[in-house]
Amino acid sequence: MALNASTCQQLRGYASKKDAKKGGKGGKGGKKGGDDDDEDDRKGKGKSSGGSAPSGEMSFDLLDLEKKMGQCLERLKKDFMTMRAGTANPAILDPVSVKVENKMVPLRDLAQVSIKDAKTLMVNVNDVELTGAIEKAIREAGLNLNPIADNKAVRVPVPKPTKEFRESLTKLAAASTEKAKTIIRKLRQDGMKELKKDLKAGMSEDENYSLEKKAQTLHDKYIKDAEEALKVKAKEIMAN
């Protein structure tokens, strides 16, 4: 059948519309592809691009260092109190332990120690049956004391120390001081090690240097305080 011009024109128009429709689908598909790309971009934004992890908690604690050094000095002073120099002081009996039912019990848990006068201590016993055991424990404690039992109390005269005893006591005080100084030095060394770790963990060099100086200042202070305490104790020992 022959096609006239009008029919051909209609067919061409139909084909154009069909192609346009297909193109529209393709365009729609292209848009969808673009949306997928946009979505991928949005997801990519949330991913880490690398970089260093945040540093953890710092190891060094200046306040803790000062606290430990202070405790060390206080222990030294407490030790000094047990080093009698001819004057009655309840602290001189702190090292005494009493054997009770095959157990060693601190004297302070069994009695109250008080000062009767400048040269005498009184030990008031909680249980009268332990008076003898307490007297024996004080006598054998190596404190050069000769206690006297009296019912529920034990009287402890504090003799005037000899020159040799004073010198021995001074050496003991010096040894205790050196031990305390060694502990203080060790605390500073441990602090410096912690600061090195903190520097590697992200602490700034300025802050690290500042804390090192503060740790050294604390060290110097407590070493000096320990030495001053020894001077005072040695003078006390030799004077009484």
From TrEMBL:
Domain Ribosome recycling factor as annotated: residue spans: 76-238
One Gene Ontology MF term: ribosomal large subunit binding
CC per GO annotation: mitochondrion
GO biological process, one term: translation
Positions of the UniProt region annotated as Disordered: 1-58
Keyword NADP listed: no
Record keywords, A-Z: Protein biosynthesis
Start-end of Polar residues biased regions: 1-10
Any Pfam family: RRF
Function as written in the Swiss-Prot or TrEMBL entry: Necessary for protein synthesis in mitochondria. Functions as a ribosome recycling factor in mitochondria.
PANTHER family hit by this protein: MITOCHONDRIAL RIBOSOME RECYCLING FACTOR PSEUDO 1, RIBOSOME RECYCLING FACTOR
Family: Belongs to the RRF family.
Protein name: Ribosome recycling factor
